[in-house]
Amino acid sequence: MTDHATTPGPAAHQKIDTSVPHSARIWNYWLGGKDNYPVDEAAGDAYSAVFPGIVTVARSSRAFLRRNITHLVTEAGIRQFLDIGTGLPTVDNTHEVAQRLAPDARIVYVDHDPMVLTHARALLTSTPEGATAYVDAELSDPDRILAAAAETLDLTRPTALILSNILGHIGDYDQARAIVARLMDGLPSGSYLSINDGSRGIDAAYERAQDAYNETGAVPYFLRPVDKIAAFFDGLELLEPGVVSVPFWRPEAGAPAAEPIGEHGGLARKP
After folding, report:
1. Fewer CB within 10 Å, N or C, the chain?
2. pLDDT at position 75, please?
3. How would residue 15 be classed by pLDDT, with cut points 50, 70 and 90?
4. Taken in order 188, 190, 195, 201, is the CA torsion positive or negative?
5. What sections of 51-197 are H helices per DSSP?
6. Is the dihedral of CA 111, 115, 117, 119 positive or negative?
7. Rounded Cα–Cα distance for residues 99 and 109 (Å)
8. How far does the chain reach from its first CA to its final CA, in angstroms?
């Protein structure tokens, strides 16, 4: 197993500001994780008081990702994953799902958050046959991400790029599209792009809650219309059923009937 990561040290801990809520820690709280602070729980509770459905959004997002990875491993034969905007370890992280199905799968996680860095070793647990790595980099620096990922992944072979609830942090839409395009340009034919993000036009209460959160001084996250999320896949071959509210993306057999939520996503192949 080859693991590449910066070992968390005192400086990493000193950078963690526990006085301001942080979206990754709030998301962790909604997913039932423990890696958060009272300020995050308070912000999460205030958010869910306005929009109780946020817990469903968070957990539906994670379930969507699990189904994506399952398809990529079992149907598409993908064994390499580049997961950007990792967030904090909870349940069914990318390497856990992928290596459960294919022990030789190789995963590179990317984030730029001191608290995620302190938990990098939890993310780096791998099967002996496979590998995991953690890269400390900004989404806005795709060239650095690709160069660092190439230390663990063979980027001449098909690779799945995972962008789960991260593009909403790039306020400039054109910049967000350019980042996605550059990352996919660095991957070969037969690679895949998985995106899911918060969407507008489905739930007004969700939109009010997110807009209010963005005004608190915390790192903002911008919901986007569904057509703008779909446009991230331009030039790629979208798998059925296309870009849809995440509970409707290939639900598991026997799953209860779902309602649309303000979280849309899809999976596409690079021709």
Report:
1. C
2. 98
3. low
4. positive
5. 54-74, 94-101, 114-118, 120-123, 142-149, 173-185
6. negative
7. 14
8. 31
Give the whole-angstrom CA distance, residue 55 versus residue 38.
17
Cis peptide before 114 (omega within 30 of 0): no
SS3 content of the chain, % helix, strand, coil (to 5): 40, 15, 45
pLDDT, tens digit, for every residue of 133-168?
Answer: 999 999 999 999 999 999 999 999 999 999 999 999
Contact 152/4 with Cβ under 8 angstroms?
yes
Nearest Cα neighbor of 36 from 15, 59, 9, 18 is: 18
Report the largest interatomic distance among the alpha carbons of the chain, rounded to a whole angstrom.
48
Q: How many residues does the chain have?
A: 271
Return d(Cα 14, Cα 36) in angstroms, integer. 16
Which pair of structure tokens corresponds to residue 192?
Answer: 């895949």
What is the rounded CA–CA span in Å between residue 188 and residue 159? 8
Whether this model's pTM surpasses 0.85 = yes
Structure tokens, 218: 């915390």
| Segment holding 44, helix H or strand E | helix 38-50
CB–CB of 165/196 below 8 Å?
yes
Type of residue numbered 221: Y
Name the one residue in this structure whose structure tokens are 């950078």: 15
